[in-house]
Each structure stands twice: as structure tokens, then as C-alpha cells.
Amino acid sequence: xxxxxxxxxxxxxxxxxxxxxxxxxxxxxxxxxxxxxxxxxxxxxxxxxxxxxxxxxxxxxxxxxxxxxxxxxxxxxxxxxxxxxxxxxxxxxxxxxxxxxxxxxxxxxxxxxxxxxxxxxxxxxxxxxxxxxxxxxxxxxxxxxxxxxxxxxxxxxxxxxxxxxxxxxxxxxxxxxxxxxxxxxxxxxxxxxxxxxxxxxxxxxxxxxxxxxxxxxxxxxxxxxxxxxxxxxxxxxxxxxxxxxxxxxxxxxxxxxxxxxxxxxxxxxxxxxxxxxxxxxxxxxxxxxxxxxxxxxxxxxxxxxxxxxxxxxxxxxxxxxxxxxxxxxxxxxxxxxxxxxx
Length: 342
Ligand code: TYM
Description:
This protein is mostly helical and about 350 residues long.
């Protein structure tokens, strides 16, 4: 029987899970368990590279686990866990530091964006992509489903794998980036990527009222000032979002009515908001059930960490052997360098 290919992906517990995460990641993660052996990780060690408060971090880890499970990610069919619960992530990141040029890290767009304007930049922010490479390569993953914004970090993960393999021998596959529909969902401003740090998001567990209060503020075609101006759906983010939740026929109708000014932007937003709320209703319901049953969530994470750890140990034992570190390696190698007897 051929072994299934491996998938790894991660998400930071830094804010409420939003539509960009759902469309760019969760939806696909949930489906991929049918074809691949999947590892999905809540990357708290990445999240602490920014200012954070301890209680907030723990709450976010819990809420994100709930959102992932509520979005259909079945923990019985994949390994769902928290990064800091598997110590090997940090260990491998340290070992990868020695094959990663600082210049490559300084060139990362996300590093430049996140460090801009900071008086003091912590080393974790610079080394962030090394930890990301460790996350993926620890499980020797073949594929990494992510949104567009992660492409550069994944290129670096491949460089790390290549450099490490060249120096210590082939161990790591070069992981392939998988992006697809929904890999760059724009925020309510219609300009920037939907992002927790910008605050232009639609949370996936928003109730219909909250959803409407957010969707009604979304920016539409800027050239359409009055209701009887014809609109251009091709430049309108609200119309783009319809693609994910409105059927083809209804969308074609909205498109024509927007172009002929027989539907206004508010009506178009109302339909979007209603369709989003309906589409996400099962997610909201499952999230409420899980939140009322926190022990189940903790159990899932404990089981996930145990499975992840046993895979991580396998990789670390080969890595330590090749790099000449770790207690087992020293004990097994004593004879190689001990002075020969008379
Ligand atoms: P993070 O936490 O910012 O986002 C998690 C996932 O959601 C995707 N995403 C989006 N997709 C489409 N449109 C958007 N507006 C949008 N916003 C976010 C992201 O691309 C990502 O797939 N560094 C990573 C976390 C990470 C990781 C990993 C990912 C750590 N280690 C290993 C993959 C593999 C991050 O900050 O994602």
C-alpha cells in the first residue's frame, strides 16, 4: 500500500479567525484529510514574537482550536495540535539557524513590514521563518496549503531544506506550496489583504447582526457614487466575495443589475451578508457547542500533541545523528574518538 503524501499547515492564534483564514486555509484543510496525512498546527510560538498578554494568548489558542474544529477539520482524521506542546519545533529551529543566512531573513517582506517603526526588534521576529521551516520539515511534509502571503516564507523553507540536505545528507523533501481559490481574500477596505493586524476582517463566527454591521461598511466600486451610476463588478470587492457564497445564477443576475444600476450597493451587500451568515451557520453552531464543552477541546489537543511528538521524534533522531548532537549520538560514538588502548 502506498503511503499517503503529507501535508502541514499552521495558523497563529493572534485574533479572531476570519473569512480570509476560512477561505484561504480552513476550508481546504478540512477537505485535504481525505487524500493526505495532515498535520495542522496552532503556532503559538510564532504569535509570541509580537507583544502579547498571557491570558489573551491562551484564550486565542482555545478559540482558534474551536474555530478549526467548527470549520469541519476533524481531529480524528488529522493531527491537530499546538506548536509549543511539541518541544521539537524549537529544537529543530535552532539547528536550522546554523544553515540560514541572516541576509535571507532580513530580506523577508513580512519581517520588513512587522519590524518597520519598532524601536527594538526581537530576534524571534527575524528568525520567524526559520521556525516556520522547522514546523514543516519536522514532519517531512510534501505539501503546504497556505494563502498567497506565505509564499516567500515557503521559498525560504525550501532553501533551508536544500542547504541542510547539502551539508548533512538528504533527509528533507522540499515542500511544495499549495494555493488556490481564496488564497488572497481582500478586507472590508477592498484594498489590503483581510488581516487580523489591519482590523478589516469578517469573523467567521459573527452572528447575522454583527455580520451585517461589518458588511455594510465594505468599500465597493469607488467610481459608483450615486445609486443610478452603473457599477463595475470587476473592481468591487463585495462582488468578489459573492463568489464564495452566492450561486452562479444569482451572481450573474447581480452582475448585470449592478452594471445597469438596477441594484444598489446596499442591496448587494445585504445579499452577501445574508448568504455569508447562512453559509457559516453550521460553523457558528458547532463553535457554540465546543465552547460549552472545553474539556473536549483540551483532550483533542493532548491527543494531537502526542501523535505529533512521536513523528517529531523520528525526524529529530535522524537529524541529531547527522549533526552529531544529542545524548544518544554521543553514547553511540564514544568508540570513534576514544583514545585507543595499548
Ligand atoms: P496566519 O496565521 O497569518 O494565517 C493562517 C493562514 O490563513 C491564510 N490567510 C489568508 N488567506 C487568504 N486571504 C487572506 N486574507 C488571508 N489571511 C490569512 C494564510 O496565508 C495562512 O495560510 N506564518 C503563518 C503561520 C505558520 C505556518 C507555518 C503556515 C507558521 N508555521 C508552517 C504554514 C506552514 C501565518 O502567520 O499565517
